[in-house]
Structure to design on (201 residues):
């Protein structure tokens, strides 16, 4: 995604930095239609974390299982907005299905929020006016719907105002939250093929 040259330079610089984001092979980012009424200028990306990464050089996976989904939205209002304390706003959403042993953890919301704050700090991003919610939702499937009969999802929604216009570190933080929500090991560390989603620590 590249912002049109008619858009403000601040917004174009921010969009370009996120469009050039490099993520680990299990994470797929795609441009999507952004919200139209939240700010004069906006851009958005959808995210999926795959249980099996694409084969090297192909970019494709047969029947890959998506274990975490997310969205990354960039808003820009040249006039600024009172709640933002700035002219740019990063909005994120991450959803992960929890393993049964983690679904009842009373500390999970605090732990999930720490994924985000820790990722922002570790990436070196600068931000202000950070806020959001962590929600657990339970569902029971009936009839011809695939998946376990009972499922619990974790949803992390957050937004913050970056203190810089090049947002590479903010994109890195978003990708890090996706990875930890999916229970991915550090890059370069092999697993034994056991999927762990929604880790609580």
């Amino acid at each position: 995604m590249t912002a049109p040259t008619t858009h403000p330079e601040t917004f174009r610089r921010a969009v370009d930095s996120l469009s050039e984001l490099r993520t680990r092979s299990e994470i797929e980012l795609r441009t999507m239609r952004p919200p139209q009424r939240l700010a004069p200028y906006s851009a958005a990306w959808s995210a999926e974390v795959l249980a099996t990464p694409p084969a090297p050089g192909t970019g494709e996976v047969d029947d890959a299982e998506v274990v975490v989904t997310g969205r990354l939205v960039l808003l820009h209002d040249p006039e600024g907005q009172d709640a933002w304390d700035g002219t740019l706003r990063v909005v994120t959403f991450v959803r992960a299905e929890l393993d049964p042993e983690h679904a009842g953890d009373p500390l999970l919301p605090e732990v999930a929020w720490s994924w985000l704050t820790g990722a922002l700090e570790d990436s070196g991003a600068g931000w202000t006016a950070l806020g959001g919610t962590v929600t657990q939702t339970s569902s029971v499937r009936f009839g011809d719907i695939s998946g376990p009969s009972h499922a619990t999802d974790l949803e992390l929604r957050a937004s913050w105002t970056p203190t810089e216009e090049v947002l590479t570190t903010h994109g890195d933080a978003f990708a890090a939250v996706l990875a930890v929500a999916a229970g991915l090991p550090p890059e370069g560390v092999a697993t034994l093929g056991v999927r762990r989603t929604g880790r609580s620590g």
Summary: Confidence is low (pLDDT under 50) at residues 190-201. The first helix runs from residue 9 to 19. The helical segments are 9-19, 100-103, 108-123, 168-181. Residues 114 and 177 are 10 Å apart (CA to CA).
